[in-house]
Design a protein that fits this description.
By secondary structure, this protein is an alpha/beta fold. The chain is 44% helix and 19% strand. The chain has ten helices and ten strands. Helix 6 links the parallel strand 1 and strand 2. The longest helix is centred in the first third of the chain and has 18 residues. The chain is globular and about 65 Å long.
Length: 273
């Protein structure tokens, strides 16, 4: 792939997904393209590019390609400091301020194969179900990969992954199934998985949210675009809602209706009441 072809693909990926591929990640792009091209029966980049432009047929192939060009690295309870911030600092305050009959609505952005969304479900279920007046909660989990979302909806994972889940959560959250384990149905019903690009998240039919969890997603977008995306997410938050980002994903961003909240090794913003 020469430089002109590389730029053509970079522009297509950025236009359709917002994801930026810098020159140093050219091998990643080429590898993903070649893998999908072989499966689809194409031998040159230009013919394959033209196929992607071919109306509805091209849209079907684009969905398959995106799965090869997105990173699905994830695990349960991936960033304990952010989870501790939610559980120990934000949630008690939210419970004290929200009306007694108000359910908690969360959004997991870039949920990949579901581990992050199920982690939030485990954490919220434990914290809310034991209250004198139990609170209901729901989670919308989004990703651009249909294949990854298929894994997430099934809620089944290999047995080796069980070690990622802290012992106290296992008894009430998972069950053995087919040589691995499955998230129990009660928690699966709390999550709605949807194929949504972060570029279009603010146009999706999302209700006002109390918690937005968006970690390891913004790093794939151009720095100048990250602020725009965050402004859109900020508009989805209810008063006293929390936006949790990956530490170091964005620098210098602020919003007039959000206040940076303290937490060790975390990056989070609270919607002003």
């Amino acid at each position: 792939m020469d430089d002109a072809e590389f730029q053509l693909w970079v522009r297509l990926l950025e236009t359709r997904t917002g994801v930026t591929v810098p020159p140093e990640r050219k091998p990643f792009l080429v590898t993903g393209l070649r893998r999908r091209m072989r499966a689809a029966g194409f031998s040159d980049y230009r013919s394959y590019y033209d196929e992607l432009m071919a109306g509805p047929r091209g849209q079907v192939e684009w969905v398959a390609l995106v799965d090869h060009l997105t990173v699905h690295e994830t695990r349960f309870f991936r960033h304990p400091p952010s989870l501790a911030l939610i559980r120990d600092q934000w949630l008690p305050t939210w419970l004290a301020q929200a009306p007694a009959d108000q359910s908690l609505h969360a959004l997991s952005v870039g949920c990949s194969t579901g581990e992050e969304a199920y982690t939030l479900a485990m954490l919220l279920d434990e914290a809310l179900s034991g209250l004198a007046q139990p609170r209901r909660f729901g989670i919308t989990a989004t990703d651009v990969s249909q294949a990854a979302l298929g894994v997430a909806r099934a809620g089944w994972y290999p047995k080796a992954r069980i070690e990622e889940i802290p012992e106290p959560y296992r008894a009430r959250s998972i069950e053995e199934a087919d040589g691995g384990f499955r998230i129990i149905e009660r928690l699966q019903r709390r999550i709605g998985f949807a194929c949504v690009n972060l570029l279009h998240a603010t146009r999706a039919p999302l209700r006002q949210l109390d918690l937005i969890y968006c970690q390891n997603v913004l790093i794939y977008f151009a720095r100048e675009r990250r602020g725009e995306l965050l402004d859109g997410l900020a508009r989805l938050l209810r008063p006293n809602g929390l936006l949790v980002l990956g530490a170091g994903e964005v620098l210098g961003w602020n919003h007039p209706q959000l206040t940076r909240t303290s937490g060790r090794q975390t990056l989070a913003f609270l919607r002003n009441s």
